[in-house]
């Protein structure tokens, strides 16, 4: 699993702690240095039933400074993929992905359902 996070994010730290405690193997990637590519985001966003907004860090400065709240409802998948791939601070974190399975944000019950080993 690729685990995209921000090194100082408390939510990311909670998710990482959960992964370690559950013995889930993951590769930690800093969103400050790397995000999924535009092509990867297009694939993710095209194959989900979730809203585009659910992938955006709506409480972040970049989101507010660029008035994405007003732009997002009219955004195409391509435009959203541009934003998400161009600046990791726009991505709701942590973002975890393995194959066609992914989560954004952290809730222990969701992680247990999606990433848990079912022991």
Tell me the layout of helices and strands.
Blueprint: E1 2-5, H1 10-22, E2 27-30, H2 38-46, H3 61-65, H4 68-71, H5 77-86, E3 95-98, E4 101-104, H6 108-115
Parallel strand pairs: 1-2
Antiparallel strand pairs: 1-3, 3-4
Description:
The chain is α+β, with helices and mostly antiparallel strands and 119 residues long. The protein folds into two domains: 1-31 and 93-119, Glutaredoxin, CATH 3.40.30; 37-90, Glutaredoxin (3-Layer(aba) Sandwich). It is built from six helices and four strands, in the order βαβααααββα. A four-stranded mixed beta sheet has the order 2-1-3-4, covered by helices on one side. A hairpin with a 2-residue loop joins β3 (95-98) and β4. α2 (38-46) crosses α5 (77-86). The longest helix is centred in the first third of the chain and has 13 residues, at 10-22. The chain is globular. The model has no long low-confidence stretch (mean pLDDT 95).
Overall pLDDT confidence: 95
Poorly predicted regions are none
Global outline: globular
Radius of gyration using CA atoms only: 14 Å
How would you name the CATH homologous superfamily of the largest domain? Glutaredoxin
Distance between the termini: 19 Å
Element order: H for helix, E for strand:
EHEHHHHEEH
Q: What is the number of beta strands? A: 4
Q: What's the architecture of the largest domain, going by CATH?
A: 3-Layer(aba) Sandwich
CATH level-1 class of the largest domain: Alpha Beta
Number of domains: 2
**Strands across the major sheet, in which order?**
2-1-3-4
